[in-house]
Automatic annotation (TrEMBL):
InterPro entries linked: KR_dom, Sc_DH/Rdtase_CS, SDR_fam
Organism of origin: Tessaracoccus palaemonis
Domain Ketoreductase stretches: 217-404
Protein name: 3-oxoacyl-ACP reductase
PANTHER family: 3-OXOACYL-[ACYL-CARRIER-PROTEIN] REDUCTASE [NADH] (PTHR42760:SF78), SHORT-CHAIN DEHYDROGENASES/REDUCTASES FAMILY MEMBER (PTHR42760)
Region called Disordered, residue ranges: 60-81
EC number, UniProt record: 1.1.1.100
Entry keyword annotation includes Iron-sulfur: no
Example GO molecular function: 3-oxoacyl-[acyl-carrier-protein] reductase (NADPH) activity
Keywords: Oxidoreductase
Keyword Isomerase: no
Membership in a protein family: Belongs to the short-chain dehydrogenases/reductases (SDR) family.
Family annotation (Pfam families): adh_short
Amino acid sequence: MDILETLYGTRAGKFVANKAGLADPPRLRRGRVLPTGPVVLGELDGAGIGRATLELLGITPGQPTLDLPENRTRDENGREQAPRYVTKPGAIVVDATGVREIVQLEGIRALLRPVMRGLEPSGRVIILATDASAVEGLEAKAVAQGIDGINRTVGKELRAGSTSNLVFVKEGAKAGDLASTLSFLLEGRSAFVSGQTWRVGPQKVAHDLDAKPFAGRVVVVTGAARGIGAAIARTFGRDGATVVAVDMPQSGDALAKVANELGGSALQLDITAADAGERIAAHVASRHGADARIWAIVHNAGITRDKLLANLDEKRWASVLDVNLAAEMRINAFLLSHDVPGGLAEEARIVGIASTSGVAGNKGQTNYAASKAGVMGLVWAMRDELADRPITVNAVAPGFIETEMTAAIPFISREIFRRTNSLSQGGDPVDVAETLAYLCGPASSGVDGQVIRVCGQNLVGA
Ligand code: NAD
């Protein structure tokens, strides 16, 4: 149990925690749940892609109508309260795809100021902008990056579990290409994703959004017996997938439990085995039919063997790199180059798990940081290599997530990791799972070669 949650559970505890300057961790809206209040749309000279995408999602946007100055209260110094929108929004979508000049950034400020204290809990700020690669001229490119600075700061200033994220729209992307991303960001599925920026282009293969996006599709999840992997398996199962749950033979009981719960199958396999890719394909064919193909492979299995580099021996080095990076590469290499029964479908998704330790480094984790930064490098390299195939490769980089892996971290460090993000709490395994499910969705093939942090906007590497 999180010590702050315990403290805030009582009046006296709340008093002490507040006096100590500890933030009250807000309860986050999770799952396939939209905000309660209206989704306000602010348009800044764009071509209407924000409006068109909301329309596709069946959302009628509210108008950013400000309250009247005479209705605003004043503080003790006589200063007028900041303007707010008449109806408290659940989210604001700022379509800044037409912003090219420094002076136009003022429009973003004016739209966002009223929501900084006037958004419902677990509200959303979503900014759409045109990617720097799709605009001409120094000012436009600088301005695109300027919007990134706004997003990251807004994420830090929002309160009560609200998040801010920026989506850069790449050349040629249309509303249908953005729909899965906007839907993910508006819903509670993105609860622990804040201050992040990623790029969305035209879908490699066009698909509509679907409530059960993985129905009839096989998804392989490694390290599925517990922690984040079990949450991934359950989330894909919720969304209709036939889940193949993979884990070490010694985790067999827990693994079978997860697989049975989902009506999937369990494969006891050490992923570092040289023939792991072959065995995964053979299992899929034998258990799910010779015609079955893998829609998505989720490389989740991972280990830590922490030591300061001064004390780090070869064994700890080798095992972490083998499980976290080399095994993933070998499995991918087999599946991408062998058209065998139970192998990768022609259109497919490959996702991995990096870490904020890979983004920023972490004391005592040279081996882990090397492996996780390696996962990010792999994503970027594979995106280019697979550019002509209908396969996307992405990763998530979790921050502090409450699992058995992080329960092993000493108490004080654990508390610090939990608090040093914009949402003042550790993430739930389901937060990582939801982001992976979004990336693997049939309608998400415009999202390729991205690493999305699921870290509550952790200060580490921010
Ligand atoms: P965990 O230790 O709770 O679970 C990992 C699972 O992987 C276990 O069931 C384990 O048996 C399995 N596994 C390990 N080696 C394997 C192998 N060789 N073959 C097959 N299965 C193997 O870990 P977790 O916290 O759920 O982490 C899951 C992933 O998320 C890992 O890649 C981890 O590095 C990453 N991650 C976690 C956090 C966090 O805060 N928990 C943060 C960043 C990244």
